[in-house]
From TrEMBL:
First-level EC class: oxidoreductase
GO MF annotation: an example: FAD binding
Pfam families per record: FAD_binding_4
Name assigned to this protein: Delta(24)-sterol reductase
């Protein structure tokens, strides 16, 4: 869409919040960054202290903490106490949606002690971890062993529990699926205080398939066993520039990891890691990675780039240089590659601190980056929070791979947000229909990237201020999100619920499938104990009366509009 074709919008009158946001960097530099650095350091010391303990000691402490959770649940009086939720403060969550469900009367269960790596089993290739273990912690333990989780989400602070109960993706998801697809067992405390272990082939297999995307509304996750894979010391990363229309950029992205001959399971043709960043409507850089040994990386002529040093250019800006100098290859230490977006929070750091990408800031104060998202949320009031909901977009659109071009054109037309992040992932055909599922009959089409057992999807990450906001024009953020959600429903797409959602309950269950989820809610006693997933995701303040009415409605009916299976 050219500038002449861009919709003409009236100028927006500035209010006091605009000026506060423009100068918020003062609070970030003098308050948020120092406290963030201190918290990161103290957390690191706590993690190291935990790692000094034997697995047996950690397991003993874990068992004690589980008993406390069970005891606490059994203390609840359903007729007097509110619904169960964790004792974690609302602002601590990394997600951007309001955690308003905790404003209703609720019964808190403290899970703050569940942040230990319980076991790394090299024979079974399994990591058994507690739900508050984060990505930075797990890679610090596994990568020196030349092991890693099959899917490692990019930001250090993202926790295992959040990635399982919510949504998690990485550049390896085109091979292994979403984070929850790599879990082999869940340890769950149910509403009645029972501790159960759910796997895909035991008596709790229905619970195993229902846990992902349930937002912790079926039970309390206390541990998970997650698939490990062997890795090498470096990532050989190729930066390939693509230019043309948005459809051209989409096809270039698809071709970077999906062979046109359909040989999607061939490791010789498919890279280990994939991501693409679209910088404007005509330019993108596709990045593909292959694990490499120390010996290969240090061969004469190869370039090694430690991208996580505080003084280095931010990763997305470094990748952008391929648009000028053409395709190039470099070797990045594996753990640094995993967390390449942490320091600048993708490109959100540019909005938080507009000058933080400048060389003088990186060298002098870059070591304080990044600010903790939880502290950024804790230091904003209701007015600031509402401002960001209207004037800022943090959304992920999960769409079938063949519809990526259409999704890019929609975002450009309705939001004008750049850069955009593209990351593919498999959506598996499972024995039962879960909350998210591939298009019926996809295996008959066998489009580029698909296999007979999984449809290839793509996360279109939309994170930044929309073009109209940057130009000072009127922009209705809530309406834009509603339109996005409608487009996703029409195109068999999904919206991860860490983000701000405008979905009504009926629309929510048009997007997601309720059947298995509701069955498990009833079977395992979650109704009347845990809030339903829609109400937990719903935007706005929740009153106790609303919650009770919603629970009663779920007892009577589900709102899903189930797709008819293909012939």
């Amino acid at each position: 869409m050219s500038d002449l074709e861009a919709p003409l919008r009236p100028k927006r009158k500035k209010v006091w919040v605009d000026y506060f946001v423009n100068f918020r960097w003062i609070i970030v530099i003098f308050v948020v960054l120092p406290i963030s650095f201190t918290l990161y350091f103290l957390t690191y010391l706590g993690d190291v202290r935990s790692e000094w303990k034997s697995y047996k000691q950690r397991q003993k402490k874990h068992d004690e903490n589980v008993k406390k959770v069970v005891k606490r649940l059994k203390e609840r009086n359903p007729s007097k106490d509110g619904l169960v939720c964790t004792a974690r403060k609302p602002w601590i969550a990394v997600g951007m949606r309001n955690v308003d469900y905790k404003r209703a009367r609720h019964f808190e269960v403290d899970l703050s002690a569940f942040r230990n790596v319980l076991e790394i089993n090299k024979e079974r290739m399994i990591a058994r971890v507690e739900p508050l273990v984060n990505m930075g912690q797990i890679t610090r333990v596994t990568v020196p062993m030349n092991l890693a989780l099959a899917v490692v989400a990019e930001l250090d602070d993202l926790t295992v529990g959040g990635l399982i109960n919510g949504y998690g993706i990485e550049g390896s998801s085109h091979i292994y699926g979403l984070f929850s697809d790599t879990v082999v067992a869940y340890e769950i405390v149910l509403a009645d205080g029972r501790l159960v272990r759910a796997t895909k082939d035991n008596e709790y297999s229905d619970l195993f398939y229902a846990i992902p995307w349930s937002q912790g509304t079926l039970g309390l996750l206390v541990a998970a066993e997650i698939k490990l894979i062997p890795v090498k010391e470096y990532m050989k990363l190729t930066y390939h520039p693509v230019k043309g229309s948005l459809k051209d950029l989409a096809q270039g992205y698809i071709d970077s990891f999906a062979p046109r001959d359909g040989d999607q399971d061939n490791p010789e043709k498919v890279p280990d890691f994939v991501e693409t960043m679209i910088y404007n409507r005509h330019e993108a850089v596709c990045m593909t990675g292959k694990y490499a040994s120390v010996e290969e990386a240090k061969k004469k002529g190869n370039v090694i780039n430690s991208v996580c040093w505080w003084f280095k250019p931010w990763f997305y800006q470094h990748a952008q240089t391929a648009l000028k100098k053409g395709e190039f290859v470099e070797y990045i230490p594996t753990r640094e590659y995993y967390h390449r977006h942490t320091r600048c929070l993708y490109w959100e750091g540019k909005l938080i601190l507009p000058f933080a990408d400048q060389w003088w800031f990186r060298y002098s104060l870059g070591w304080l980056m990044p600010p903790k998202v939880s502290l950024l949320k804790a230091t904003q009031g209701e007015a600031i929070r509402n401002y960001y909901h209207e004037m800022h977009v943090i959304q992920d659109m999960l769409v079938p791979l063949y519809k990526v071009g259409d999704a890019l054109e929609w975002v450009d037309r309705e939001m004008e947000v750049y850069p955009l992040w593209l990351c593919p992932h498999r959506l598996y055909k499972l024995p039962c229909k879960t909350m998210v599922y591939p298009e019926p009959g996809f295996e008959l089409q066998r489009r580029q990237g698909d296999t007979h057992y999984a449809q290839m999807y793509t996360d279109v990450g939309v994170y930044y201020a929309p073009g109209p906001v940057l130009r000072g024009e009127v922009f209705d953020g809530a309406e834009a999100v509603r339109q996005m959600e409608s487009w996703l429903i029409d195109n068999h797409g999904y919206q991860p619920q860490y983000a701000v959602s405008e979905l009504t309950e009926k629309s929510f269950w048009r997007m997601f499938n309720a059947e298995l989820y509701e069955q498990c809610r009833r079977k395992y006693g979650a109704v009347g104990t845990f809030m339903s997933v829609y109400y937990k995701s719903k935007k706005g303040r929740k009153t106790e009366k609303e919650v009770q009415e919603a629970e009663q409605a779920h007892l009577e009916t589900a709102y899903a509009e189930v797709d008819e299976p293909a012939d």
